[in-house]
């Protein structure tokens, strides 16, 4: 007798799981915005009417549906990506290359350490950080964090570094007196600087993106950075 009841309960549990899975699939077909609106509409009157029809306490039924809706919402949640910022860097270019689909939400972090911690704390689904470059080799902080954390590499991509000299629109090359950029970018462009900008003053900044943002606000100042940064901050390359 008990064995028959256990078997029937197991069958019911399987059917519940199958129905939850089917429900989540149907919700996903609606698309993110419509699905969220539908799930929100379940709160209150709809759940109360079902509770009344089947003679169940509405607070318990609301709790059950909230949990089921959470399962459906999890499958709809846009991917969140953390990357070494600020915006306009080559790491953001790599991020956009890997996660090209619409609906992905990206967040810049100020350090490689912060990207790793965001992934570990589940603040984001994935993190994007530089691993190596052709001039300086492996990025030490990334290797250290890989050894110290539980985060693992799940994908890699290569981004061709194409530097641009970016300044306020209308600025001529002979008007440039100061060049700003990250030390690594300056090193990668040293031949151009020595041959075309020998008499300019070189100043370092924490990132190429920050350099671009500052340069386009000043006369006689240019920055070495990406086209993405130029587009983002309104400069001319």
From TrEMBL:
<dbReference type="GO" id="GO:0009094">
    <property type="term" value="P:L-phenylalanine biosynthetic process"/>
</dbReference>
<feature type="domain" description="Prephenate dehydratase">
    <location>
        <begin position="80"/>
        <end position="237"/>
    </location>
</feature>
<dbReference type="Pfam" id="PF00800">
    <property type="entry name" value="PDT"/>
</dbReference>
<protein>
    <submittedName>
        <fullName>Prephenate dehydratase</fullName>
    </submittedName>
</protein>
<dbReference type="InterPro" id="IPR001086">
    <property type="entry name" value="Preph_deHydtase"/>
</dbReference>
<comment type="pathway">
    <text>Amino-acid biosynthesis.</text>
</comment>
<keyword id="KW-0584">Phenylalanine biosynthesis</keyword>
<dbReference type="GO" id="GO:0004664">
    <property type="term" value="F:prephenate dehydratase activity"/>
</dbReference>
<keyword id="KW-0057">Aromatic amino acid biosynthesis</keyword>
<dbReference type="GO" id="GO:0005737">
    <property type="term" value="C:cytoplasm"/>
</dbReference>
<keyword id="KW-0028">Amino-acid biosynthesis</keyword>
<keyword id="KW-0456">Lyase</keyword>
């Amino acid at each position: 007798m008990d064995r028959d009841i256990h078997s029937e309960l197991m069958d019911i549990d399987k059917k519940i799981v199958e129905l939850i899975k089917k429900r989540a699939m149907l919700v996903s077909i609606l698309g993110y915005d419509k699905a969220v609106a539908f799930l929100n509409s379940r709160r209150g009157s709809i759940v109360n009417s079902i509770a009344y029809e089947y003679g169940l306490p509405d607070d318990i039924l609301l709790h059950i549906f909230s949990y089921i809706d959470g399962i459906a919402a999890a499958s709809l949640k846009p991917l969140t990506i953390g990357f070494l910022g600020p915006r306009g860097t080559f790491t953001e270019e790599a991020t956009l290359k890997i996660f090209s689909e619409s609906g992905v939400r990206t967040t810049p972090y100020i350090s490689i350490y912060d990207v790793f911690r965001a992934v570990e704390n589940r603040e984001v689904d994935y993190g994007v950080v530089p691993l190596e470059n052709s001039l300086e080799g492996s990025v030490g902080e990334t290797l250290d964090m890989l050894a110290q954390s539980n985060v693992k590499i799940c994908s890699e991509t290569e981004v061709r570094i194409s530097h641009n000299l970016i300044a306020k629109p209308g600025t001529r090359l002979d008007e440039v007196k100061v060049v700003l950029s990250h030390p690594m970018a300056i090193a990668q462009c040293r031949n151009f600087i020595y041959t075309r900008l020998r008499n300019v003053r070189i100043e370092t900044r924490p990132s190429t993106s920050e350099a671009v943002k500052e340069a386009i606000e000043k006369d006689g100042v240019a920055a070495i950075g990406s086209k993405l940064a130029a587009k983002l901050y309104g400069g001319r390359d």
